[in-house]
Amino acid sequence: MSIKKRRKAPEMKEGRKNTMLDDILTRRKKDFAPGVHTELRAQVNKTRGVSFLSGSLTTNVRSEVSGVSARVYKNGVYGFSSAAEYDADAVAAVLAAATENALFMDKRAGRGTPALLPVDAGQTVREITDSDPVQKDYIDFAGALDAYMEKNCPGLSGRGVSIRADSMEKLLCVSQGHDAHVILPRCYVYLRMTADTSGGNPVELFVPVGGHGTFDTVFSDPALLYPKVDELYEKLMQKREGVYPQAGEKTCILSGELTGMLAHEAVGHTVEADLVLGGSVAAHSLGKTVASPLVTMVDYAHTCLGAPAPLPIYVDDEGTPAKDVVLIQDGVLTGYMNSRQTAQHFDMEPCGNARAYLFSDEPLIRMRNTAIVPGTSKLEDMIASVEDGYYFIDTNNGQADTTGEFMFGVCMGYEIKNGKLGRALLDTTISGVAFEMLKTVDMVGDTISWSSSGFCGKKQPMPVGLGGPAIRCKITVGGR
Amino acid sequence: MIALDQITQDIIERLRGAGADKAYCTAATSVTREFNVDGGQFSLMRTLFDNSLSLTGIVGGKKGSVGINKFDDAAVSQAVADCMASANSAEADAAWDLAPEGGTRTFTQGVLEADEDRLFDRTAELMEQISKRFPKILVEQMIVSHVRSHSVYRNTNGAFYTKDAGYYNVDLMFSGHDGEAASSFFGTGAITDSLDHPFMELGSIERDLADVEKQIYTKSVGEKFTGVLLLPPGCLGSFLGDIADNFASDGPVLEGTSIWRDRLGEQVADRRITISFAPGAKEIVCGQSYTGEGFLAEDFDFIREGKLESFLVSLYVSNKTGVPRAKNSGGSMIMRPGDRSLQEIIASIDKGILVGRFSGGQPGTNGDFSGVAKNSFLIENGKITDAVSETMISGNLADMLQNVVAISRETVADGYTVLPWAAFGGITVSGK
């Protein structure tokens, strides 16, 4: 789904070249307190946003948040401090405060656990071109899409075009592990349309388009997105004539987008080691069969099936070089995603899952690019195999429990009758329990679809990639 | 302390100098002190020193905004330049405006100085009480903090507001466990300006812990039925928030997709329903003092005795659509209690479901919702019976407000909201 990177268009205005973070951290390693593990991180988060709502420019904003933080580990507990300034005084202040906090915690609640085990040491530098287009470029691009929508999509009761570009640049120094300088930019255009059914009820569809990179590397010409507008409009016109699905358990085909949501929400969170320690269902499932033998699921670090993952991560914010984590292998739960601390607890290898969103955030265990691995089935054969069921295509939200119980909103889909697609569907929900539902998977498609436009919410937001192939399974449909 | 009054004055002058005919900015500093518990154990202490600076310039109806977290001259100069470049690139829209008159006001709210040792002790006390009284509860994460902020707002119409605020906050996520059996996770919390009371006594923390401990073993609801939905204050707040977003907020009012678009002053709910947004209420901790457009925040009724009294729209959407603006930016929701006890309400329900948490997506524009009832109990023949799992509920938000069964006289105040229990008829409940 993501738009491939394109050459910069000649009509684009020249934006600012980003100023990279100067390294004033490395020389402060000598100030790290002895007998503790210290991480020192400077970070810049940038966001550029533009929104047209039914023709009105309602959002036109640029933001930039930066600063420095330190985290110190001692005897099983951490101290952390951050400051919005980025100079020698701020670095010294956060190092002192984080160390003081670690000592306070050790005194009041220390666990007496041993020092963190070492990880591979070295340096990771991933500097990619990180240009910063002027705001007019975003406004003109979104405005052109809005104008196209207004002209070519009659009968809409509402329309929206938004662009959001965000990036995070990190400079990391650690007592032990990989020091790093990395940037993770992404940019998405969000298209939204609303129309009324013949009964006067509004129905809505929405699609994000974009991916890894800055605005000017991901997008060049709004006309290249007009087919996406047309496709969304066609689907909406089908949906306004749609029907509610019948409630109950049905044999269904889930698109790759929905499979990705399932992988992330219903399985991925339960195998984050901090949630395992917090009592998730996966605490009792390691080594057990949790899915059909056709199901293998991986949290990819930076490369997937020989291609760059949607949001590549090369090193995490604890200085651990990033590697893939195989979570489910041929239906058996084989691993958790870890920080250095939880990896030690579970006697597993840390693979670079500890990530922080802002300079003022501590690293948490997060997914990177989590996907069910493609199989061998063709989508048309999968649809043809269903006598009476549904093909669920797009989702507008998903939530899951630490028990693995999940609920996804489905905003686009079709009936399947005797192996053929039928009428479009109105909004519905699907639900189930992940480790039960995955055992019903009996066909896995041969093509992976990725999405990376949203934020995963935990204590902090985080950009993540999620993906998968179409799967055939039995699932509970909410109906109306 | 950084002289935010001077910084904001300087920014307003620079924006004017760069051509803005209207402008506003907010500068703030904050200090956060925070303790974290993970997997039932203390894990982290944080001290955060942060700044924020947001500025907006409007030139000939064209608006641009910038947010940064620096106050040095180079950063401010760049922000002013970016703000004006953004504004000059925008399309003119006469609806962008500010409060017509300002004035100088100073606000002080809550507890400004953190008592870090006592905060740790209260946190440890809550952990100990949970361990003793609710032994099957595992705290996945608890975050306890004190946040102090100092902020200054200025605009070109003469508003100059200074605010100092401080509060304690406790949030916890937990689930019940018995061997390999587990409940769904649940989140609760409160905001307070005092450490005089144990955290267990705040909001609905104690009741929520007790309820979740009873949700480890669940049953299916069996046959699909239409019955009564009883919502405790926390979940009621989520539903009312969706109602406000769907039918009365900027987006649907501006686009005209709100089904209440032309119903101001009309009956949209049962006469027992009165909902206010009241940042000035005594139960609210550190409520809003002024809006970004420069208006002083005032309490107002959203729905009074079933009538739609106000939309929740900004000055911009008000100017675009002609509907009056809201007198604050939302939040601090208060619902008038009813005249029946919670026990009386439960006793009156033949068949229904008490839903502690609703796991569903954003309801449709028309108010249709469906999703999973989490942390929920079946109500049968006037009694709460089994905890349930894999149970879907569906209905329509607008219809719910017309189908009120009862509202409790008990309320829960958690510093953010003051809400009762409320029961609504006509909800579809279905098991797997």
Structure description:
The complex is a heterodimer of chains A (480) and B (432). Chain A has 480 residues and is of the alpha+beta class. Chain A has 2 domains: 225 residues, PmbA/TldD fold (2-Layer Sandwich); 230 residues, no CATH class. Chain A is built from 9 helices and 28 strands. In chain A, strands 2, 3, 4, 5, 7, 8 and 9 form a 7-stranded mixed beta sheet that branches. Chain A has a 6-stranded mixed beta sheet with strand order 15-14-11-18-27-24, with helices on one face. In chain A, strands 10-19-20-22-28 form a 5-stranded mixed barrel. In chain A, strand 12 and strand 13 form a beta hairpin. The N terminus of chain A is likely disordered. Chain B folds into 2 domains: 210 residues, PmbA/TldD fold, CATH 3.30.2290; 215 residues, no CATH class. Chain B has 9 helices and 19 strands.
Quickly list its features.
heterodimer; A: 480 residues; alpha+beta; 2 domains; seven-stranded mixed beta sheet; 9 helices; disordered N terminus; B: 432 residues; PmbA/TldD fold; eight-stranded mixed beta sheet; 19 strands; 23% helix
